[in-house]
Write a structure and sequence with these properties.
By secondary structure, the chain is α+β, with helices and mostly antiparallel strands. Helix content is 59%, strand content 14%. It has helices at 6-26, 40-50, 53-71, 82-154, 158-181, 191-206, 224-244, 294-305, and strands at 188-190, 211-217, 221-223, 252-260, 269-276, 309-314, 320-328.
C-alpha cells in the first residue's frame, strides 16, 4: 500500500466513520433487522485501500463499537448478549478477512511495481550500455578508416593506393551500416527505409557528388539476419557501380529498385534487388564466379549467406544490371 501521511490517515478514518454511521442511520428504517454492519464493511475496506492498515483497523474497531451500541439489540447499550457476541464475532471475522486480502493485494502490487521499476532501470541501463558499445565500435571502425586514408596518401603505387581507398570506403560504409542497423529494441527493419538510408550513406562516403541515386522500394519487413547481408550486398554493388559505372566528366544516375512478389507456396516472400548504372557495361568474357573484384567477391559470398542468387548482366540501353533474387522467411520476422 502507498504510504500516507498521518494527517491523511486521521482525516480519512474520521470521514469514513462519520459517513458510514450517518448512512447507516439513514437506512435504519428501510433495512430489516439483522444488518447492523451493512454500511461499515465498505468503510473499513475503503480505508484499508486508500489510507493505511492502521487507520483501517481503527475504523473497523470504531464502527464495530458504534454498530454494537446503536444497532444491536438491546440498542443504546453495550450489553454482552449471545446475539451480540455472534454478530460481533462474525463482524470481526469478515473484517479480518478483508484486512488479510487487501493487505496481501497491496503488498503484491508494491512488489510488482518495484519489479517493474527494476526492469525499467535494467532496460535503460542495457540500452545505454548497448549504445555506448555500438558507439565505440563505430568509432573504432572510423579510426581504422582514417588510418587507411593516411596510409593511402603516403603510398606511391597507384594500384595500392586505390586498394587502400577502396578499403577505407568499405570500412566507413560498414561503420555507417552498423550505426543504423543495431538497436537494442529494434527487431525488424523496413527494407525501403533501411536501404534508402544505407545507400545514401554509401554515396556520401565515396565522395561521389556527381552521382544521382534513383531509389524506389516496396515495403518489406526485414529481420536482422537478412538485413545485415542485404545491406552489405547493396553497399558493395552501389560502390562497384560508382567505381566502374559512372562515366568520367559528367553526372550519372544509379537506379536501385527493390520489388516484392506474392508469397510462394511455402510461405516465403520472393524479393528482387536491381541496381543499374550508366557505365560502359561489363567487359567481354566477364564471369562473376571468377571475378577477382573484392567488392563482387564480398557481394557473392553474402548472397550465398542469404540463399539468394546474384547476377550481373549488360543492360538493354547500356550499363550494367546487378540483380539479387532472395527469399524472406516470414517466420523469422
Amino acid at each position: 500500500m502507498a504510504r500516507r501521511s498521518l494527517r491523511h490517515q486521521v482525516v480519512f478514518a474520521l470521514s469514513a466513520i462519520v459517513l458510514s454511521t450517518a448512512l447507516r442511520f439513514a437506512l435504519n428504517d428501510a433495512l430489516p433487522p439483522g444488518f447492523p454492519f451493512l454500511t461499515f464493511f465498505p468503510a473499513v475496506m475503503l480505508t484499508l485501500v486508500f489510507s493505511s492498515l492502521r487507520s483501517g483497523l481503527a475504523v473497523g474497531v470504531a464502527c464495530g463499537v458504534i454498530a454494537w451500541y446503536f444497532f444491536i439489540e438491546p440498542v443504546r447499550s453495550l450489553a454482552i448478549t449471545p446475539g451480540a457476541i455472534v454478530a460481533l464475532l462474525l463482524y470481526a471475522l469478515i473484517i479480518a478477512t478483508d484486512v488479510v486480502f487487501i493487505t496481501a493485494a497491496g503488498r503484491a502490487l508494491e512488489q510488482r511495481m518495484a519489479a517493474e521499476q527494476r526492469a525499467n532501470a535494467l532496460a535503460t541501463s542495457r540500452s545505454l550500455m548497448f549504445s555506448e558499445l555500438q558507439h565505440r565500435i563505430s568509432n573504432n571502425l572510423s579510426t581504422v578508416a582514417a588510418l587507411l586514408r593516411l596510409q593511402s596518401q603516403l603510398v606511391a603505387d597507384e594500384t595500392a593506393r586505390q586498394a587502400l581507398v577502396a578499403s577505407q570506403t568499405r570500412i566507413r560504409s560498414i561503420s555507417l551500416l552498423q550505426r543504423r542497423l543495431h538497436s537494442p529494441d529494434l527487431q525488424t527493419l523496413d527494407a525501403a527505409e533501411y536501404l534508402r538510408e544505407v545507400l545514401h550513406d554509401v554515396v556520401e562516403v565515396t565522395g561521389a557528388g556527381d552521382v544521382d541515386l534513383d531509389f524506389s522500394a516496396d515495403s518489406l519487413p526485414l529481420p536482422h539476419d537478412t538485413a545485415v547481408p542485404l545491406g552489405l550486398i547493396a553497399s558493395e554493388l552501389v560502390m562497384n557501380a560508382i567505381e566502374h559505372g559512372a562515366p568520367e566528366g559528367r553526372d550519372t544516375e544509379i537506379t536501385v529498385r527493390l520489388t516484392v512478389d506474392a508469397a510462394s507456396p511455402d510461405g516465403r516472400i520472393p524479393a528482387t534487388l536491381r541496381i543499374v548504372d550508366q557505365g560502359p557495361g561489363l567487359p567481354e568474357g566477364f564471369d562473376l564466379e571468377t571475378s577477382d573484384s573484392l567488392g563482387l567477391i564480398v557481394a557473392r559470398q553474402f548472397a550465398t549467406a542469404l540463399n539468394g542468387q546474384l547476377t550481373l548482366a549488360k543492360g538493354k540501353d547500356g550499363g550494367t544490371v546487378a540483380r539479387l533474387d532472395f527469399l524472406i522467411d516470414p517466420t523469422s520476422i
